[in-house]
Amino acid sequence: MTNKLLFFANIFVNSKENLIRMEDSFKSIDKTLFNEFVINIRGKYSNEAISFLRRQGIQSLFNINSGFGWFHDTYILTNKIKFKYIFCWLEDQICMNKNYFNDYLKEVYKFDLDIARYTYSYDISNFFDINKFENTKYMYFKLMSKKDFDGIKNGPFIISYGSLMKKELFNKILLDNNPGVWSKYTPFGFEKNSEQHSWLPLKIGFIKKEIFASIDDDHAIHSNSLQSRGLYPVRTKVRKKSDHLTKYILSGKKYLIREKLNFLLVLIKIFYNIMRLNISFTIFIKYYDHIKSKIIKPEHLPILEIIEKNKRKKFLLLSIDNQLSYLSQIYEKLNLVFISNTNFTKPKENNINLIPYNYASSKTDRNLNELYNGFKIEINLKDIDIKNHFLVTHKKIYEIISKELIIKKTQVIDEFVLFDLDY
To answer: Is the pLDDT of residue 243 over 60?
Structure first.
């Protein structure tokens, strides 16, 4: 395969300032260096960001945010594309030297690196013996092993998101699907710190000079951001302290603590639902362990009660993002069929497929009823026997199939519609 380079982003644009910085970052980059662009925008200002990128001529623009999280959505967007290297765009950084970046890319290709930073965040001589590295015009590189990182803390990450990396390594991280202490809806767990040796060995490259500079982050190098240097306008409150690698890690741990504290709120929510929906306390006791381990959402207790009262019927569950998948395990002895799109699935292999909707294409084929979190829903029920079933379907699926069915009565619970099918 030729050295095909993919420009990729799955980013969160949630303020006007984020939008302006994203636009400035994109304008600073030489687009001719890339063979293809795939950009996914989430957040409050996603429509504005997509409109900007469409005006820049980008042909693959998405607005997906599935329940499976950042790793899954990123894999879905990139797996089928043929490329050797991927450029993971940090939209809050400005390219300061286009020519240097072009020459740096040539060396990455020439020396067949697994991963190479494009951000200049560390003087690596503070951590490694650079005499043991290959010394080229634009970089230091080395096939690095566990021995190279032994004893290093708060140093250069083994895998940094602000990098160029081979598709094989990129996919390996995505399929590992381990967000660590972070939320699965963020890319923070994508990076692997200097103590995560299982990702080694890797041929890693470090740039000698600055190519990209952070707009407001002085992380690792004091007063190095563009705002600190007076090279970028300050429109919002400046960070009081930006040497915050440790704070990043602590915030991740705080996320886990918050997750544990949330269980108290879950219990309150459960009792509220029991009272509001007149759910029997027996159901709550029976499934307490499943609720405690977050297998069952409190909002779904009424669905369980309906199934409990209708055990003699055949049940068919049509789901999105594997919601209610636990029911097929709980009721494995029941005549219950569960159908959903699956994690890291390939389209056309299932009865329900979610296809990323490209917002750069014409809007004439856009049917809002068939869109879910930026995906177009494709359903094939031709091979499924749905006669005489009690159906539990996601609302979006119900909107698509309801016109073809004869339905006397429905009941809506959370994101699902429940009904007997008169077919």
So the answer is: no
Cα angle for residues 315, 419, 335 (degrees, 5° grid) = 5
Confidence (pTM) = 0.85
Here the tokens at position 291 are 């609720």
Q: Which of 212, 243, 274 is the last residue of a domain?
A: 243
> Is 319 found in the same domain as 225?
no
- Please, what sign has the CA dihedral across residues 115, 118, 120, 123? positive
- Angle (CA) 337-341-347 rounded to 5° is 130
What domain range is 384 assigned to?
310-421
Quote the number of domains for the chain.
2
Report yes or no: 156 and 221 within 8 Å, Cβ to Cβ: no
Cβ contacts of 85 within 8 Å, gap of 6 or more: 3, 4, 5, 6, 108, 109, 164, 165, 166, 167
Question: Quick one: average pLDDT of 116-144?
Answer: 92
pLDDT tens digits along 369-405:
788 999 999 888 777 777 778 899 999 999 888 877 7
How far is residue 30's CA from residue 321's CA, in Å, rounded to a whole number? 37
Is-contact 204 142, C-beta < 8 A?
yes
Instruction: Among 243, 267, 293, give the residue marking a domain's end.
Output: 243
Same domain, 338 and 237: no
Closest CA to 91 of 8, 33, 207: 8
Q: pLDDT tens across 269-299, in order?
A: 666 666 665 666 676 677 766 666 667 777 7
Q: Is residue 254 part of a domain?
A: no
User: What CATH code is carried by the domain that includes residue 67?
Assistant: 3.90.550
pLDDT for residue 281: 66
